[in-house]
């Protein structure tokens, strides 16, 4: 009986704190992402021939986020049935976006304005007491930061208006 | 190549299910899963246990004897065999022809109201219970109920049930321990309560066969129910049904079988 009560209390507390932390983090992420929409980030291995780029440098960033009790509890029940582990999805999403944001911040701080060859790596941080259990997840993001010399007078090389509605992703260019 | 700035909605990678809804769905789903597996396993036990011959069960537990005087019986007190009680038990057991046991009946030196049936044909009654009963019929029903446990193979069943439940709960592992335990307790205790009710019914049959009526059988439970304040949780986690329900079930059964509950009671037996 005591074990049940402790479990319920833990679940309640960690749900509240975990949810709060997650929401705050998302707000910050969305704000920072808005600030970086001008920074080109791709996973091209080579830059297109018509780019005028100078300077290149490897940049890396990482983030480690811990799994809280509530998330883990729900995941442990989910594993018997299959399906999306709904509690882990925001965690991984946050971690990835945060890692990429930190990468962009690093690149910008060093004077670069684009990143190519972006790669992401995930690893598990094991619990020290019960090594089979996951205590957290680490996302490593790395890429080549480059400085593209934009031709400001020639408007064609850099468009900031949302011109083509039938090209929402911007593939056609 | 032109670079067009687009602001994309990045939240496509997250399911829109609220975590609490997920939590509730999974708790219910898991409980149903576990309860179903337990139901299948326990049903198997309930079918197989009665197939074991009575003599085999008696031989299995032949080593367990409570008639030797012990210093401290499982930490509860001293146990002393009693001839008069055994005589009453033997009288009642005569009406169960297939009885293989030569019952050992003993008194436990404890104030707590209790009566137990141990595997191997051992019945123990506490001094507290002997002091509390006011008629021979009341005591006879208690003993007949214990004999009922032997008749219904309750020891074998609960052993098998306990073993299988432990194994199944072990499969589910430590991470879901708290939930598994709750489901386990609620599931298995219902079988225990059914066994108690079934022993009550057999007790009524024996008492009817011996005395021609079942008066006095519910007296002890009436006394117990005065001190029982049962919450809803207790109702579904106790090993015995709550006394109020027991009394009602016994009255209904007696009515159905046309056994009289209102005859004159025989005076209290002198056990010492």
Task: Describe the fold and architecture.
The complex is a heterodimer of chains A (173) and B (272). By secondary structure, chain A is an alpha+beta fold. Chain A has one domain (2-152): Translation Initiation Factor IF3, CATH 3.30.110. Chain A is built from three helices and five strands; from the N terminus they run H-E-E-H-H-E-E-E. Chain A has helices at 2-35, 69-78, 88-109, and strands spanning 40-41, 53-66, 114-126, 134-148, 158-159. In chain A, helix 1 (2-35) packs parallel to helix 3. Chain A starts with a helix and ends in a 14-residue tail after the last strand. Chain B is an alpha+beta fold and 272 residues long. Chain B has one domain (56-257). Helices cover 57% and strands 7% of the residues of chain B. Chain B contains ten helices and five strands; from the N terminus they run βααβαβββααααααα. Chain B has a four-stranded mixed beta sheet. In chain B, strand 4 and strand 5 (122-126) form a beta hairpin. The longest helix of chain B is centred in the C-terminal third of the chain and has 35 residues, at 177-211. The N and C termini of chain B lie far apart (107 Å). The model of chain B has no long low-confidence stretch (mean pLDDT 91). Chains A and B meet through helix 1, helix 2, helix 3 and strand 5 of A and strand 1, helix 1 and helix 7 of B. Strand 5 (158-159) of chain A pairs parallel with strand 1 of chain B.
Short description:
The complex is a heterodimer of chains A (173) and B (272). Chain A is of the alpha+beta class. Helices cover 38% and strands 27% of the residues of chain A.
What is the topological layout?
The complex is a heterodimer of chains A (173) and B (272).
Chain A: H1 2-35, E1 40-41, E2 53-66, H2 69-78, H3 88-109, E3 114-126, E4 134-148, E5 158-159
Parallel strand pairs in A: 1-3
Antiparallel strand pairs in A: 2-4, 3-4
Chain B: E1 3-4, H1 19-48, H2 54-60, E2 79-81, H3 83-93, E3 104-108, E4 115-118, E5 122-126, H4 127-132, H5 136-151, H6 154-172, H7 177-211, H8 219-227, H9 232-237, H10 243-257
Parallel strand pairs in B: 3-5
Antiparallel strand pairs in B: 2-3, 4-5
């Amino acid at each position: 009986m005591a074990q049940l009560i402790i479990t319920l209390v833990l679940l309640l507390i960690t749900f509240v704190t975990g949810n709060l932390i997650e929401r705050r983090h998302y707000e910050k992420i969305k704000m920072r992402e808005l600030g970086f929409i001008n920074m080109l980030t791709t996973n091209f291995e080579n830059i297109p021939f018509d780019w005028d780029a100078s300077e290149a440098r490897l940049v890396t960033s990482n983030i480690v986020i811990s799994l809280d009790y509530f998330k883990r509890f729900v995941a442990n029940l989910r594993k018997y049935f299959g399906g999306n582990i709904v509690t882990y999805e925001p965690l991984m999403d946050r971690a990835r976006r945060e890692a990429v944001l930190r990468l962009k911040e690093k690149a910008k701080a060093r004077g670069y304005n684009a990143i190519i060859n972006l790669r992401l790596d995930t690893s598990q941080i094991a619990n020290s007491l019960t090594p089979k259990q996951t205590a957290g997840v680490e996302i490593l993001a790395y890429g080549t930061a480059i400085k593209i010399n934009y031709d400001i007078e020639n408007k064609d090389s850099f468009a900031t208006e949302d011109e083509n509605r039938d090209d929402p992703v911007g593939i056609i260019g | 190549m032109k670079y067009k700035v687009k602001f994309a909605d990045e939240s496509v990678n997250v399911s829109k299910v609220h975590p609490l809804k997920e939590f509730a769905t999974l708790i219910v789903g898991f409980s149903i899963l576990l309860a179903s597996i337990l139901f299948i396993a326990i049903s198997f036990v309930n079918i197989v246990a009665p197939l074991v011959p009575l003599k085999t069960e008696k031989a299995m537990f032949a080593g367990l004897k409570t008639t030797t005087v012990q210093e401290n019986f499982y930490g509860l007190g001293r146990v002393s065999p009693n001839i008069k009680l055994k005589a009453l038990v033997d009288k009642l057991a005569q009406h169960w022809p297939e009885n293989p046991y030569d019952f050992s009946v003993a008194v436990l030196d404890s104030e707590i109201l209790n009566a137990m049936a141990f595997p191997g044909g051992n019945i123990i009654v506490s001094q507290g219970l002997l002091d509390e009963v006011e008629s021979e019929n009341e005591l006879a029903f208690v003993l007949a109920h214990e004999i009922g446990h032997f008749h219904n193979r309750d020891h074998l069943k609960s052993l098998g049930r306990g073993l299988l439940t432990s194994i199944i709960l072990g499969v589910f592992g430590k991470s879901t321990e708290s939930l598994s335990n709750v489901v386990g307790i609620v599931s298995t205790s219902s079988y225990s309560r059914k066994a108690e009710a079934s022993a009550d019914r057999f007790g009524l049959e024996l008492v009817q066969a011996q005395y021609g009526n079942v008066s006095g059988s519910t007296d002890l439970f009436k006394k117990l129910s005065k001190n029982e304040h049962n919450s809803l949780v207790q109702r579904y986690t106790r090993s015995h049904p709550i006394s109020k329900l027991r009394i009602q079930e016994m009255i209904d059964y007696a009515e159905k079988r046309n056994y009289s509950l209102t005859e004159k009671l025989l005076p209290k037996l002198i056990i010492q």
